[in-house]
Design goal:
The chain is of the alpha+beta class. The chain has helices spanning about 5-25, 30-45, 90-105; strands at about 50, 55-60, 65-70, 70-75, 80-85, 105-110, 120-125.
Amino acid sequence: MLYGDSDLNVVSEAIIGCAIEVHRVLGPGLLESVYETALCIELKNAALDFKRQVGIPLLYKGELISEHRPDLIVADRIVVEIKSITRFDPIHTAVMLTYLRVAQVRLGLLLNFNTPHMRQGIKRVML
């Protein structure tokens, strides 16, 4: 099912608000797994449905060859990848595009918590 851009924007802004709160409380410099756990708490408090580390099968000519595990899928329509890195590289966008294709959703958020201000660590990726 395709969702309108306004629906995606409402959910993505809620996710970003949760990420900003996590960053405000914890700050930069921690492990990705710490931010993932804290973000899940914020998403739950915001009443946003999400799946964590769910396996998405990757088929090649009808045969299962791999499973991809994005960090989070929120509201069955946005893939969220959590990072704690110096900067985004092109490979992060490429991986996100693969997650979007495999999960059959249009929007992904790359969230890098290793920045002075969370807004600097947000990258939207559209398919």
